[in-house]
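S.,

Sequence below, as promised.
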Amino acid sequence: PASRRRSRTASASGAAAGAAALQQRRAQQALRVDQLVEELFRLHDLNHNGVLEEEELIKLNEKIAQLHYGADTDKRAVREKFRNLFRTELDPNGQPVPFSRFRGYMTRVLDGIDRSKAAQELILEQFVEEAKSGRLAFHCQSFQSTSDEPFRSKIEPLYS
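The prediction came back faster than expected:
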């Protein structure tokens, strides 16, 4: 009887520790997702003014599209797609939005793809890497255009 009580107590203690570890892992994943959303926002804020502007979303996604499809990408189609996205999801008048609005949008997008925080972390890591590459494309002569100029000087070149 005493050994059976100890066995049940140890088993219950192990289950509680496992549940606590799982809860801690989920909290860490949620925190990491929040950090990645914030990093993605900062990467999109091309002029570093603390808000996301419609033109910033468009320009960065033009560069990402060029990286995927080449310099001859239909920038007009990309511009239209992301202008519509900005106006339907972030601000109907195309006004700059704060991080909180961007975070709400990204939460809806991520939850629509996969509600798992582990999966969202992986998805966001990919989005962040694409945004970093898109920023680099502002300094790659093959992808430059005159309309990049207001942003190019504010985006740090990582190579020459």
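The CA atoms of residues 17 and 30 lie 20 Å apart.

Coffee later?
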